[in-house]
Amino acid sequence: MLKSARIGLGIRWYTAKAKRSVLAQDQSKVKEYTPKVTDNHEHRVYVWGFQETGALGLQTSVKKAKERYTEMVHHPTRLQFSNNNEITDVTAGYGFTAYAVQRDDGETLFGSGLNTDSQLGFQVKGNAKDPSNLDVIIYPTAIKLPRRQEETDEDMQVKSMSAGRAHLVVVTKNGTVFTLGNNSYGQCGRSIIEDERYSGSALIHRIPQEDICGKEDEITHVECGQDHTMFLTKNGRIYTCGWGADGQTGQGNYHTAGQITLIGGDIAKEKIVRVTCSSDCVLALNEAGDVFGWGNSEYGQLDDSEHAETQINTPRALKLTKGIGRIKDVAAGGSFCMALTDEGLVYTWGFGILGFGPFVEQTSRPQHLLPPLFGRNDFSNATTVVSIGCGVFHMGAVNSDGDLFMWGKNRFGHLGLGHKKDQFFPFKAAINGKVSKVAFGVDHTIALCKPYF
Fold first, then answer.
1. Phi, psi of 163, rounded to the nearest 5 degrees
2. Can you give the CATH number for the domain in which 122 is found?
3. Helical H runs in 249-358?
4. Range of the structural domain that residue 288 is part of
5. What distance lies between CA 201 and its chain's CA centroid?
6. Across the 453 residues of the chain, what is the mean pLDDT of every consecutive 10-residue run?
């Protein structure tokens, strides 16, 4: 049977098959969309939170940096410095940030933010004859690590780094440890000097790896608490130094220690694969998925028994995490803890905004946060959490899609949700990239991301 169609004033006759042919789109004329890529770097960096210290590294104008409307950045904002440099790692201290970079000029470490204790090295302004020390650095600036003549640019690439309240510790690929900043409690791994002046100091302490763990082992990770430092080795040993008033050094006492010391307790015969701390409570994880802890336990973070100690100075196997499954990641905040099981389930406990709403602020037992809070739904039922982390007052989790979910205290806008209100449930931060690592400062956050395209 013939079909008809009116075209203009005439009539065209054609079959149903011909009609389909006429209406079919010419595939050769369909334009293929190619996204515009602004740079070819592997990582992008997004920053948000309190900006007045310069920790976000966004400003290039001192005048603008002092204006009130630039005090906070409430949304994740792409760091211009990452457009021009290949950034491989980030760490956030109390009001400052350090960036590990790969550059042709051999510089491997940059920093921005507070430099009142020379935690970002000796930074000067003015001419060489009359230098003036910079206490605040508003844009990422090179930190000159002292080299030996035979050391190459590859040797000086950053292997691991971490920042505390006012100190920075860096481990390079050739195994050298560099410590910068405040050493009032021995957190830089050197002897404590009475009345030492840290502002304007050019001292960067250098420690050979073998002086810490011997020639048969090597340092794989460094973790700074508020005023103490921990080194994790390939063989699963932990060495510590610094402030120990709450037992956070794990050395069996409550003293300060400038000498880096191997710790034992319940981890003496364990192979530890992860150690974490943002303040003075420490969690460690062995290869079997068992959790150990030491330090401050005033809110039952490490022990929920009736007569539990509030400070624990020796590593202890945690009983309260038994029964929730094999654990693959842990995080310790100021008054709370987190655990992630190999099934991708997130547990929190302690005191604070734990993610269960405004009416739950304390629990002595790990409680499970539901998977839909982290992006799992009927359309994406394979989505699961792959990593967790926290600052002193806030928490975060990254799922398998590369999305970051944040919750907790938000006084400085460091949750990146567009406001300063506290967030009682995990909420997705709008970041234009797949998040691979998050550095949680006390009042700012840094995310290392891979582009979608």
1. -125, 140
2. 2.130.10.30
3. none
4. 38-450
5. 27
6. 48 57 62 64 92 89 66 93 94 97 94 96 73 83 93 95 98 97 97 93 95 96 98 98 97 96 96 97 97 96 90 96 94 97 96 95 93 91 95 96 97 95 96 96 96 82
Cβ pair 368, 357 in contact under 8 A: no
Whether 10 maps to a domain, the answer reads no
Q: Give CA angle at 322 (219, 303), nearest 5°.
A: 80
In this structure, are residues 44 and 78 in contact, taking their beta carbons and an 8 Å threshold? yes
With the C-alpha atoms ordered 157, 162, 163, 168, is the resulting torsion angle positive or negative?
negative
Residue 70 CB neighbours (<10 A):
16
| Exposed e or buried b per residue across 332-368, where buried means at least 16 C-beta atoms within 10 angstroms of its C-beta | bbbbbbbbbbeebbbbbbbbbbbbbeeeebebbebee
Q: Which residues contact 153 (CB under 8 A, 6 or more apart)?
A: 106, 108
Residue 257 covered by a domain: yes
Task: In whole angstroms, give the CA distance from residue 357 to residue 56.
Answer: 29
Residue 5 lies in a domain: no
Do 344 and 328 meet the contact criterion of CB atoms below 8 Å apart?
A: no
> Which residues face 170 on adjacent strands?
161, 178
Report the residue count for the chain.
453
Selection from 424, 397, 383 nearest residue 338 by Cα: 397
